Amino acid sequence: MCHVREKRAKMGRVEVIAGSMFSGKTEELIRRLTRAEIAKQKVLVFKPSIDNRYSEHHIVSHDVSKMSCITIDNAEEIMPQIGDATVIGIDEAQFFDEKILDVVTELADMGKRVILSGCEMYSSGEPFGQMGALMCIAEDVDKLQAVCMVCGEEAYISYRKEQPQNGNILIGYSDIYEARCRKCAHLNGKKS
To answer: Is residue 181 marked as binding?
Structure first.
């Protein structure tokens, strides 16, 4: 006897790519989104306007891979632009406020695949924005490692070469930040 299954709505999912600066987060996001495009899936990509390092209308990895995107000021701007997109990419997710959680949850509940990338902690070791909460609601979390610029070991810290003047956020490149391991970052004031 053959049973015919009812057609069910496609299940959405949340994927988070986390890690320090220079760990390849945006590169991995671009790779996943490109694969979705090859599979003929409709892809839409967003980034926060605060990320103005390389291009206003592209997400760009440090190795200069890039993909067109929509630049937005807040997470609430995402929903009105979704249309028939099935895969949603969000780069530098740590810069969005708590509304990103509601938006991502709603997208996944609508059957969308949502892929986010971002730094999960400040150079001080404290959680960065909503990344911890996003990792909690994700079906899939990949935490990428960089290479420590001091000793060559696996690095997970975005070490800030200069001390913060006004808060934790300073948008920058390798002139301001470098990847470091726990030992070389001297977290919590402990010297190696």
So the answer is: yes
Q: Into how many domains does the chain fold? A: 1
DSSP-assigned letter for residue 184: H
Single pTM value for the model: 0.85
DSSP letter at 34 equals H
142, containing H or E segment: strand 140-144
Please give the Cα distance from 38 to 127 (Å, whole number).
35
Helix or strand run (H / E) with residue 19: strand 13-19
Residue 137 lies in a domain: yes
Q: Is 115 annotated as a binding residue?
A: no
| Location of structure tokens 């993909």 | 67
Distance of CA 167 to the CA centre of its chain: 21
Catalytic, out of 15, 27, 92, 120? 92
Q: Does the annotation mark 92 as catalytic?
A: yes
How far apart, in whole angstroms, are the C-alpha atoms of residue 34 and residue 30?
6
Q: Determine, yes or no, domain membership for 112.
A: yes
Domain of 17, in residue numbers: 13-144
Looking at residue 143, its amino acid is K
Q: What is the pLDDT of residues 16-67, one digit of tens each?
A: 999 999 999 999 999 999 999 999 999 999 999 987 666 666 676 666 677 8
